[in-house]
Amino acid sequence: MRPIIPNLKIIVPSFGSSFTISKHEKSNNDHNNQWHYHPEIELIYISSGSGKRQVGNHVSHFHDGDLILIGSNLPHCGFNTEETDSKRETVIQIHPDFLGPYFTEAAEMVNIKNLFNKAKQGILFGDRSKKILGPQIEALADLNPLARLLGLLNILNELELFNDSTILNAEEFTIETQMKDNDRMSVVYNYVKDHFHENIALEEVADLVSMTVPSFCRYFKKTTNKTFTKFVNDYRLVHASKLLAQKQINIAAISHESGFNNLGHFNKSFKDFTGKSASQYRQELRSYLE
């Protein structure tokens, strides 16, 4: 089987600007669908909708929109939204030294420097940040270049001051490793993303990265602080939580579509993962959205 080639995404700043800003009215997110990384720090604001996000070894489901900051060379994919009336997405990509190698050393930039450091693990922002800063992020694209730059710096500063953030990648998996490790993890993560609904044999995955099964298991645990089996299981459970939110199908079908062959195992795993049964999770989500 041919290994999946990892993606290093090349990003060119917008014309007349030191950073890139793009807006999408329909967030099918083809540009983010594959596991990829880039030196640029990425700020993503999705005004509404739900989907899956994967940042480093963190996998989760979001609803009611998203506001997230992804650090330099931190691999990620997802952010797809479905079945929502509004699908607006704004993506800002900033090279760490986009204003010169020393700009974060200025006394006025201490908050932004702290924010960029925390972004190495991925940051999820809360409702207050989304409500107040989300519209400002969307409006940046319509400003003249200088106003856009000043607006971005103000938004980044406010994101640090609002103090309603959560570190996503708590186990500190970053891609600041040798390129060989980067390629290996990209191959593995892409394979899981494409085959999680099937039986995944350890031998098959280990062969993709030219390792023996014991060596691969040790390598994956050392790199991500998770066993490969737990990572796949968590990925399936996140997908199940997305299906519970978006599809009106029974729980047995959701279990099957998420890669679980045994409904009892799915029910136990889902409750261990979320603290709720699948039916309770769906009901509470409906109540929240209503």
The largest sheet is: 6 strands, antiparallel
Fraction of residues in β-strands: 15-25%
- Spans of at least 5 consecutive residues whose pLDDT stays below 50 are 1-6, 27-31, 175-179
Q: Per CATH, which architecture of the largest domain? A: Sandwich
What is the tally of beta strands? Answer: 11
CATH homology superfamily of the largest domain: Jelly Rolls
Domain module tally: 2
The largest beta-sheet arranges its strands as 2-9-4-7-10-11
Overall residue-averaged pLDDT value: 81
Structural class: alpha+beta
Principal-axis shape equals: globular
Tell me the distance between the termini.
47 Å
Q: What fraction, in percent, of the residue positions are helical? A: 40-55%
At the first level of CATH, the class of the largest domain is Mainly Beta
Summarize the helix and strand pattern as letters. Answer: EEEEEEEEEHEHHEHHHHHHH
Number of helices, counting only DSSP H or I runs of 4 residues or more: 10
Domain HTH araC/xylS-type: 186-284
Keywords: DNA-binding, Transcription, Transcription regulation
Pfam families: Cupin_2 (PF07883), HTH_18 (PF12833)
Protein name: AraC family transcriptional regulator
